[in-house]
Write a structure and sequence with these properties.
The structure is a homodimer. By secondary structure, chain A is mostly helical. Helices cover about 60% and strands about 10% of the residues of chain A. Chain A has eight helices and three strands. The first copy, chain A, has a three-stranded antiparallel sheet. The longest helix of chain A has 19 residues. Chain A is globular, with a radius of gyration of 19 Å. The first copy, chain A, starts with a helix and ends in a 9-residue tail after the last helix. Chain A binds a DNA duplex through helix 6. Chains A, B: It comes from Marinomonas transparens. Chains A, B: GO terms for molecular function: DNA binding. Chains A, B: This is Helix-turn-helix transcriptional regulator. Chains A, B: Keywords: DNA-binding, Transcription, Transcription regulation.
DNA sequence: CTCCATACTTACCTTTTGGTATGTACTTAC
DNA sequence: GTAAGTACATACCAAAAGGTAAGTATGGAG
């Protein structure tokens, strides 16, 4: 079994020179955490639907997100260079959010996953016994 | 602005008949949560590398995961019908994990995202100022 | 007879995450 | 003059996630 683990590591050797989400040291795992955080992926999906959005628009589209969490998530994604924040110095405040080039590329994969889930939802739910039967 | 939100909702109308991760009611969001949970995606990625894996192999490959979390994550993914668990009634116990057809399809998207992150890691890190400069 | 290995489970505790409520600054609408 | 809208920040608390350590069952190795 030790050999098999090594074989897999060997197959992943190319990955070690860039990033490796399977390694707990690698910053790639941090980035994956940001994108796959509770609201991170949904923000990318929402932004992928249009060009620019205001804070309050995003709040309405991403159902259930609180102001605090949306602000926090947007900041993290902005720091990763995935989201662009443009604020206009007017009152009341006007801020627009959009995806950067990097952000669009990442969003494509997240949207791909979300679409797959949405299309295969019934199949997945069928495999999930909890949703149809429950022990008394 | 209300019109814009409606326009987006209209553009997503097709999605409402299947699943919609942007809706907080829809079970699709739960499935997304499972897959994008801290260890869920990494399990899919690891399993995607080979045919079958034993519990202890997965623990070694997915660096940093605890026994408790790996067991829990595998159970959730099994309930969603993404992971297949095969146990052989021998002693010491022998259990093999692999992806189902559904699981393979989901894994493709997760692997795609992970690969993108790994390939673009330096670019992302460059946009992330926290990793190079720190306020004193 | 004791130790080791496998694949877990369980109890206990800490850390992280997330929600609610409130405050801010300013202007327009009523 | 009071409320509403905008884009947040902040404090406080509850819930969830996660780690550690120990226990379980069983048989073989020493």
């Amino acid at each position: 079994m030790e050999e098999k683990v090594n074989l897999v590591k060997e197959a992943l050797s190319e990955r070690y020179r860039r990033g490796d989400v399977l390694s707990d040291q690698c910053p790639a795992r941090e980035v994956l955490k940001h994108i796959s955080s509770r609201w991170g992926g949904l923000v990318l999906i929402a932004l992928h639907e249009g060009d620019t959005f205001r804070f309050s628009e995003l709040r309405r589209i991403i159902q259930g997100v609180s102001e605090k969490m949306l602000a926090q998530t947007l900041q993290v994604l902005e720091q990763d260079g995935l989201v662009l924040r443009t604020s206009f110095p007017v009152v009341p405040p006007h801020v627009e959010y959009s995806l950067t080039k990097l952000g669009s590329e990442a969003a494509v994969h997240v949207v791909g996953l979300a679409n797959w889930i949405e299309e295969n939802l019934s199949g997945i739910l069928a495999g999930n016994k909890d949703s149809i039967e429950e022990a008394p």
